[in-house]
UniProtKB/TrEMBL annotation:
PROSITE patterns tied to this protein: MFS
Sequence ranges assigned to domain Major facilitator superfamily (MFS) profile in this UniProt record: 126-575
GO molecular function list: transmembrane transporter activity
Reactions catalysed, as given in the entry: myo-inositol(out) + H(+)(out) = myo-inositol(in) + H(+)(in)
Family annotation (NCBIfam families): SP (TIGR00879)
Main location: membrane
Annotated compartments: Membrane
Entry protein name: Hexose transport-related protein
C-alpha cells in the first residue's frame, strides 16, 4: 500500500508544463463524449487524468520535462536519457517512429515486445520472493488440516458425535482455526499502509514474514486451546499486511506487458502453499513422541511449526531484491529508484521511461484532492459504491463457495467418508495438488474469457460437486462407492474453483476501484475476504455436527447458486478495459445493469444451449463506435 500523499513532492514537475495541454485534452474529451454518447465526466473524471498524464503533450515539451526532471532530482548525468524516456513514456509502443533512438535502444525495445518474458534474472528473483511469500500464506492456512486430528483431542476438544460438550468443542475448534483471519479482518489488513509507509515494500514483507515464522513456532509450543488461539491470532497480524503488500510490490516492479501475469502468481503460489501444508501433515504424521522428554503431540507440533520454513526463506532473500521505485520516489530517493529500475530492466532507456511515468502518475495523484477521506469517497460517490458492492461480492463468495471448508477440514471429511487418518491426509494432498495445478492456467483464462464468464460458468459446477459430496454420505459406509464419490465431489469442486473464484476476487478488486482510492479499496476488499474466511473456519465444525455432511455441503452449494445470481446482476465485466471505460461501466446505475443482464438470460440459453440463431445481441455499452450508449449516467453523482 502506498504512503501518505504528504510524502510526495510538493511541487510537481509536470503540472507547470502541461496545464494548457491538459485543459485542451479535457475540452477535446468533452466534445468527443458529447458526439459519441460516451459518459461525460469532464474534469470530475479523476481517472481520465490518471489514465495517462502525459497524453497530449508534444514531444519537444516532453523532452524538456525529462531533462528538467533529471536535473531537479539529482540525475543530471542522465538528462539526455530521461529526455528520451519521457517521450517513450507517453506511448511505449510507438518507439519505431522516434528518430532519436539508436540501434541498440531500438533492439532492446523491439525485443521487449516480441519476447515479453525476456527480462533480467533479478526480476525473476523478485518473482520467486513474491511467490514464496504467497506460499507462506497458503501453508499458514492449510497446515492445520492434519494438526486438527491431534491437537484438538489432546486439548480436550472432542468433537465426536455423542461426546460430552461436543457442540461447544466444535465451536472452539472453529474459533482456533479461524483466529488468524479474525485478526486479519479487524487489525491486520489495516496495518498495511503504516507498515509500508514506514518500512517500504521489502520491509513490510520482511516483518510480516518474521511474524509469521515466529508465531508458527509459538503455535508448536502451546499447551492449551486458548494458548493456541492466542498464537494463531497474532499470526493474522502477519498474514493480513502480507496479503496486500506482495501483489502491490509485484505490480509496481513488473514490466507493463507481463504485470497482470506476475500479479496473478499470488493465487497460483498460495495454492502451492496449501499443498505444502498437506505435505507437511503427511511427512510428520507418524513422528512419535520422544520417550525421554515431556513432549506430547510432537507430530502436530512439527506440522504447525513447519510453516515457518518458507517464511524464513522469504526473509533471507527479500533484501536482495530492489525496493519498489514508487515507494522510493515517495521518499524523495530518486537515485535509488533509478537504480532499482536498472536492476529490473535490460537497458537504462527502459528504466528512465518507467521511472518518469511512475513519477508522473504520483505527481498527478498528489494534485488530486477531493476534500474528503478515501473511505468517504468509497461510499459517497455512486461509481465507487458500485465497485464496493462488486468487490465485496467476489470476496465474500470466495469464502462462501466452500473452498476453505475443504482446505481446513478435508481430512475430517475424508475420515467421515470412511478413510483412516493417513489415507485421509493422502486424499487431502490430492486436493492440494489439484488446487495448485488448476490455478496455474488462470494466468491465461482470466484475460481470455473474462471475469464474469469464468464465475458464471464455474459457480454452477461448484454447486453440483458440493451437492455430490454431501449426498455421497447417504451411500452406506461399507460401500467403497461412498469414498469414491466423496473424492470425486471434492476434487471436481476444486478444479472448478481454481480457474474461477480462486483468481478473480483479488484481480477484480484491484481493477474495480479508481486509482485515487485503490489502496483503501483494496484494504476494504481484503478485510471482507478474511472476515468471511474467519466465519467459515469458525462455523463449519458446528455446521458439520448439526447439519451432517449432507446439510453442510448443501449449505455451501446453495451459496454457490446465490453467488451466480449476485454475479449476474451486480458484477460488471472489467476485462481489458481502460480506466475511463471502467468509469463508464461502474457509472451505469445498478438497476439498469441488473435488468439488462436478466434480459440476456433467454438470449444466452437460446444461443448456447438450444443452439438457435438469436440474431444480434442487445448492447449495454458502446466502445468507440460513435453511437449513443444505451445507458448514460450522471457525472460522479453523489448520494
Amino acid at each position: 500500500m502506498s504512503e501518505p500523499k504528504s510524502n510526495y513532492p510538493v511541487k510537481p514537475t509536470i503540472a507547470g508544463y502541461k496545464e494548457k495541454e491538459l485543459q485542451n485534452k479535457i475540452k477535446g474529451t468533452t466534445e468527443h463524449s458529447e458526439h459519441a454518447g460516451k459518459l461525460n465526466l469532464g474534469q470530475d473524471n479523476i481517472n481520465a487524468k490518471l489514465e495517462n498524464p502525459l497524453a497530449g503533450i508534444s514531444h519537444e515539451r516532453l523532452g524538456e520535462m525529462g531533462r528538467a526532471f533529471a536535473n531537479e532530482k539529482g540525475l543530471s548525468e542522465h538528462a539526455d536519457l530521461f529526455a528520451k524516456g519521457a517521450v517513450l513514456a507517453q506511448d511505449p509502443l510507438n518507439f519505431e517512429t522516434l528518430d532519436f533512438l539508436d540501434e541498440e535502444e531500438l533492439r532492446v525495445l523491439r525485443r521487449e515486445v516480441t519476447h515479453k518474458w525476456d527480462h533480467p534474472k533479478q526480476l525473476y528473483f523478485l518473482v520467486v520472493c513474491c511467490s514464496m511469500a504467497a506460499a507462506v500464506q497458503g501453508m499458514d492456512e492449510s497446515v492445520t488440516n492434519g494438526a486438527n486430528l491431534f491437537w484438538a483431542p489432546q486439548f480436550g476438544l472432542d468433537t465426536t458425535a455423542g461426546a460430552a460438550n461436543a457442540s461447544q468443542n466444535e465451536w472452539l475448534l472453529g474459533l482456533v482455526n479461524g483466529a488468524p483471519y479474525l485478526a486479519c479482518c479487524v487489525v491486520g489488513c489495516w496495518l498495511t499502509a503504516p507498515l509500508n509507509g514506514a518500512l517500504g515494500r521489502r520491509g513490510a514483507i520482511f516483518v510480516t514474514a518474521l511474524l509469521s515464522a515466529l508465531t508458527c513456532i509459538w503455535s508448536a509450543c502451546t499447551n492449551s486451546w486458548g494458548h493456541l488461539f492466542a498464537a494463531r491470532f497474532v499470526l493474522g497480524l502477519g498474514i493480513g499486511p502480507k496479503s496486500a503488500t506482495v501483489p502491490v510490490y509485484a505490480a509496481e516492479t513488473a514490466p507493463p506487458m507481463i504485470r497482470g501475469a506476475l500479479v496473478m502468481q499470488w493465487q497460483v503460489w498460495t495454492a502451492f502453499g496449501i499443498m505444502l501444508g498437506t505435505v507437511s501433515s503427511l511427512a510428520f504424521y507418524k513422528v512419535p513422541d520422544p520417550t525421554n522428554a515431556a513432549i506430547t503431540g510432537l507430530n502436530w507440533r512439527l506440522m504447525l511449526g513447519s510453516a515457518c520454513l518458507p517464511a524464513f526463506f522469504v526473509m533471507a532473500q527479500v533484501y536482495f531484491c530492489p525496493e519498489s521505485a514508487r515507494w522510493l520516489i515517495g521518499k524523495g530517493r530518486y537515485n535509488k529508484a533509478f537504480e532499482a529500475f536498472c536492476r529490473l530492466r535490460h537497458s537504462k532507456i527502459q528504466a528512465a521511461r518507467d521511472l518518469f511515468m511512475v513519477n508522473a502518475l504520483l505527481e498527478e495523484e498528489a494534485n488530486i484532492s477531493t476534500g474528503r477521506s478515501a473511505i468517504v469517497e468509497m461510499f459517497a460517490v455512486a461509481r465507487n459504491r458500485r465497485a464496493v458492492y462488486a468487490s465485496g461480492i467476489v470476496m465474500f463468495m470466495q469464502q462462501f463457495c466452500g473452498i476453505n471448508v475443504i482446505a481446513y477440514y478435508s481430512s475430517t471429511v475424508f475420515r467421515q467418508a470412511g478413510f483412516d487418518e493417513i489415507s485421509a491426509l493422502g486424499a487431502t494432498l490430492g486436493f492440494g495438488a489439484l488446487n495448485w495445478l488448476f490455478a496455474a492456467p488462470a494466468v491465461w483464462t482470466i484475460d481470455t474469457f473474462g471475469r464474469r464468464t469464468l464465475l458464471l460458468t464455474t459457480f454452477p459446477i461448484m454447486a453440483f460437486f458440493l451437492l455430490l459430496t454431501g449426498f455421497a454420505f447417504w451411500i452406506p459406509e461399507t460401500s467403497k462407492a461412498r469414498i469414491a464419490v466423496v473424492c470425486l465431489g471434492i476434487y471436481g469442486h476444486c478444479m472448478a474453483y481454481s480457474p474461477g473464484e480462486g483468481p478473480v476476487p483479488f484481480t477484480y478488486s484491484a481493477e474495480a476501484f479508481p486509482l485515487y482510492i485503490r489502496e483503501t479499496g483494496m484494504s476494504y476488499a481484503t478485510a471482507v475476504c478474511w472476515g468471511f474466511n474467519f466465519i467459515v473456519a469458525l462455523t463449519f465444525p458446528r455446521l458439520l455436527g448439526a447439519f451432517k455432511p449432507q446439510g453442510a455441503f448443501g449449505w455451501y452449494a446453495a451459496w454457490c447458486i446465490a453467488g451466480w445470481f449476485l454475479v449476474l446482476l451486480f458484477l460488471p465485466e472489467t476485462k481489458a478495459l481502460s480506466l475511463e471505460e471502467l468509469d463508464q461501466v461502474f457509472s451505469v446505475p445498478t438497476h439498469h445493469h441488473a435488468t439488462y443482464q436478466l434480459r440476456q438470460v433467454p438470449y444466452w440459453f437460446g444461443k448456447y444451449i438450444l443452439r438457435k440463431n438469436m440474431g444480434p445481441q442487445e448492447q449495454l455499452y458502446h466502445w468507440e463506435n460513435g453511437s449513443e450508449a444505451h445507458v448514460e449516467a450522471p457525472k460522479r453523482e453523489l448520494v
